[in-house]
Amino acid sequence: MSDLAIRIEAHALANAVKYGGKAQPGNVLPKIIGEFPDAKKDIPGLRAQIEGVLASVNALAPDAQRARLGEIGADLLEKKAAKERDLPELPNAVRGKVVTRLPPEPSKYNHLGHALTFSINSLYARRYDGRLVLRFEDANPEKVSQEYVDAMLDDIQGYLGIRVDEIRYVSDDMEILYAAARRLIAQGDAYMCSCERETVSENRRLGRECACRDRDPAQSERLWEEFVAGRYLDGQYVLRLKGDMKSKNSVMLDPVLFRAVATPHFRVGTRYKAWPLYDLYSPIEEDLCKVTHVIRSNEFDLRIELHKRLQDALGLPRQEIVHYGRFNIRDATTKGREIRELIESGQYLGWDDPRLVTLKALRRRGIRKEAYEMLAKQLGLSPYPVNLDFSMLAALNRELVEPIAHRYSFIEDPREIAIAGAPHEEVTLHLHPSRKDGGRTLRVAGRYLVRAEDHAQFGAQPIRLKDHLTFERAGEGYAFVAKEVGARKFSLNVNWLPADPSQHMRATIMMPDATLRHGLVEHGMTSARVDDIVQFERLGFCRLDAIEDGVYRFWYTHD
Ligand SMILES: [Zn+2]
Questions:
Q1: Where are the alpha helices (H) located in 143-196, listed in sequence order?
Q2: How far is the CA of 339 from the centre of ligand 1 (A)?
Q3: Which residues pair with 169 in a beta bridge?
Q4: Mean pLDDT of residues grouped by 10 in the chain (559 residues)?
Q5: Which CATH number does the domain 416-498 belong to among 3.40.50.720, 2.40.340.10, 3.90.226.10, 2.40.240.10?
Q6: Which residues are in the CB-under-5-Å shell of ion ligand 1?
Q7: Domain definitions of the chain by residue range
Q8: Which residues pair with 239 in a beta bridge?
Q9: 80 CA to middle of ligand 1, Å?
Q10: CATH class of segment(s) 174-278
């Protein structure tokens, strides 16, 4: 398609989205002429082309119009002000009765995508004066650990500040889950299967049921009790649901419900030798947690049918299911195994490496918890996949920190200059340009430090030390010109520090690419506290991470 054709379609879609699904030809024509002035040469031809596009655009459902517009003309999507954005209402939500849940598997560190899911569920629980359950889905002893539980508790409660009404562990409900398995077996809904992997694959391909399925329930019951006692830790048997081997939905092809695991579990040790799979415990746990609304990404679409089948077999209630498009993280790896390898090989600093979008890293860089809720509201449960990157979070975080962050200078690679005739005095600078209420006092005495990068550009024109004075070259040195701005036109406006060592101190900044920048900052920064966000002028926002041996260590947040 030509550029012109794409823009006609994009403007038609934007117009349709704006006017209730039906675009008007008169609205599209001037937009196209504005972008393609040459198109004026053949107005009747252009009008005909637009009308053809409009007919197909107007035939689309509103959701599809919006999605297509996102693909070909995202610049035309209307941008609502941050305050107006919010999540849609939940279906059948009753104030005071809504229960939502956060169900992490403690087998990895949480990242930006998890924070959005947590925020969505937390926002809904609060909106309806409901409850929020944090459920650790720790049913895979080979992958789960206390390390991840601790990290997640710290992420969710400590960092994101999410108020959780109840904390549960699937491993606490094993007797209930075993009872469910026995019931499924007794009802003839599940069977012990000993087929080899190849046989299972072949049966699935051919839509064929295996011989174990016809086993007498009494024999499956005996095998189950042996299985639970740890007799088949070699993996000889699994418990399978009698699904539908002819189903087009792959998860319905007699899925495994329980498997034998010899690895000790971090909470219950070797007490249990048979562990449930997600598809079995999920519908049971939703009931135990009294969840009313399951809000999650549509990666779970296929599982709805299976969960309903289990709910019916076990007499469990249904929940309202609300699915939204999955979050794709675009600019950082989120694969636990890959990250672990990068850490173990020494290429990454740890789970909080600034190149990652783990919550550990984002917290250390200075992303405020409010930014996640703002982003969740902005995305608004779109059914389409959302590509997320750090910049989207940074844009919202900037709105939060810009009004409060104190301004300072960071002088990297300092060069000392002497300015003849400069006043010796105490200078007061502002912590924030819009408040002009002072707060920074520096004693100056004619000698200054400036960045090497700025120093290299000093020419014949006067130069200004920001918010302080103007000077110019005089012979081999420099001479004072004026304190006021405007006394003489200046070519550069540079950050500076007094050269007197009592007036500055050392600082480092951990940059987003994990390189460390070294520099000097004003002595008055001793008033900053760990966790404060400051803005280094002409560099960006940074979070004070630690003060070690008099060195102020910052992490770069964003520009
Ligand atoms: Zn079998």
A1: 146-153, 174-186
A2: 37
A3: 136
A4: 84 86 84 85 90 89 84 73 75 97 96 96 97 98 97 98 98 98 97 96 96 94 97 96 97 98 97 98 98 95 97 98 92 89 95 96 98 93 87 95 95 97 96 89 97 95 95 94 86 96 97 97 93 96 96 97
A5: 2.40.240.10
A6: 193, 195, 210, 212
A7: 3-78, 174-278, 416-498, 502-558
A8: 192, 258
A9: 56
A10: alpha beta
